[in-house]
Amino acid sequence: MTSRRKIALLLVDVINSFFDPGEPNYYPGAEDVLPVIATMLRAARQHGHLVIHAAERHRTFHDDFEWKKLPIHHLEGDPSTDFVTGFEPAGPAEAVIYKRRYSAFFATDLALFLHEQNVTHLIIVGVKTNCCIRATVQDAFAHGFTPIVPREATSSNRPHLAEASLEDIARYFGEVVSATEAEKMLG
């Protein structure tokens, strides 16, 4: 029996909070990944690959367990949670997953949705490599998907932790490839 490979592109937290210098979670250099992500997004759209936008959102006026570790952030309706201009979903064919934890899989229907679409491989891009990307990759693997992380399409304000995370991803959970390799997969 041969298995068919079906690839989807998952953008994690490509929202203003991380990429606009005036926003609370911005860090210098975060925007360097945007041109690489834009190229992959164009390729995915052009070649008919499924595109999913995962964005962190928390409920206004309600407690959230995450506040035990982090300051209050990414509240519904706050402009910091808007998608970066040019990275908004391009119509209803692109799925949006709102998450309340680091992983795009935790307490969302992402795994169910991807299985229903027969996705086998997931190219994961966005921020932060050592936190939301790593958590999403680990859960992708646990749900039976092959996660693929293009090195130049993720970043972190802690480069040493990003490198350690990429090493762990390559060793235990999936593939770490160049942006060029990921673009070819989407081509």
From TrEMBL:
InterPro entries: Isochorismatase-like_dom, Isochorismatase-like_hydrls, Isochorismatase-like_sf
Gene3D superfamilies linked: Isochorismatase-like
Pfam families per record: Isochorismatase (PF00857)
Molecular function per GO: hydrolase activity
This protein's record includes keyword Nucleus: no
Residues in Isochorismatase-like domain copies: 8-180
Signal peptide coordinates: none
Keywords attached to this entry: Hydrolase
The protein, known as: Cysteine hydrolase
Organism: Gluconacetobacter diazotrophicus (Acetobacter diazotrophicus)
